[in-house]
Design a protein that fits this description.
314 residues; 2 domains; mainly alpha; hpI Integrase, Chain A; globular
Length: 314
Amino acid sequence: MAAYEAANKGEPNVAGAGASKSQPGTVAALVASYYRSSEYLNLKPITQRTYRSTIEPFREQHGDKAVLKVKREHVKAIIAKLANRPAVANNWLKSIKILMRHAVETGMRPDDPTIGLRKLRTGSSGYRTWTEAEIEKFYEKHPTGSRARLALDLMLYTGQRRADVVRMGRQHIRDGILTLRQSKTGTEVEIPLHPVLQASLEALPTKNMTFLLTEYGKPFATAGFGNWFRDRVTEAGLPEGLSAHGLRKAACRRLAEAGCTGPQIMAISGHKNLKEVQTYIQAADCLGLAREALKKQVAADEMRTKIVKPAGEV
């Protein structure tokens, strides 16, 4: 009945249909309370969906347990069961931390049992960054004028997430500047169009408002775009593991290699944390230092060859 009344009022049933049946003091009641909190409601929709993707499985498995009885060793045991999937385990730990913090804030328990618990090492730096050779191979298969080429150019020359790339259209461009408010963070970015991207856009039919459309002439859903782009990567004969997000990282790498500063890269990518882009700058600096070192070594070798004269005939 609560869900029915909420629907009549146009209110989202964020707590789930079974929230009203949750026993007070249980994990299920805690989850329902968190979904009603300003902390959750003020999140971007895409972030809410991400959080719910791990909170809901946690509630299904442990919803009947008392929040007061959740101990540190219980949380560690839950995470340990996911140790073979460290990225998933870390997402669960993050969600449990959020819920336990909310439990303390609302008086459901006096302390937070997750304080001090650390994430598992994943042994990965995340999505793999595309190399220049891989980008060139993709270009060879998908020439200018194709949807695949446009998709890659949009990601590579704007540095945006796929959720924002699928929304891009002519309404976002004025006087050669692409202006977009990012769906995840709300950050507004203003990106001058690169000549390569400009050429890809000029190859589009002028009647299209949204740049990337499905074969049915409709805008892509974020997940659908990811699957479609993965197929285009396979068509190009590229290895598994290359993703749309890897092109966002490649865009940052290129900017760093061009000598851009952290704030300059952030102005395009929309990153809010300088630490996130500093890795690209450090990698570019190391590459530049290595190239300079090689030049000096080659020059020294050439000088040594000139000084040492060949031995005379015996």
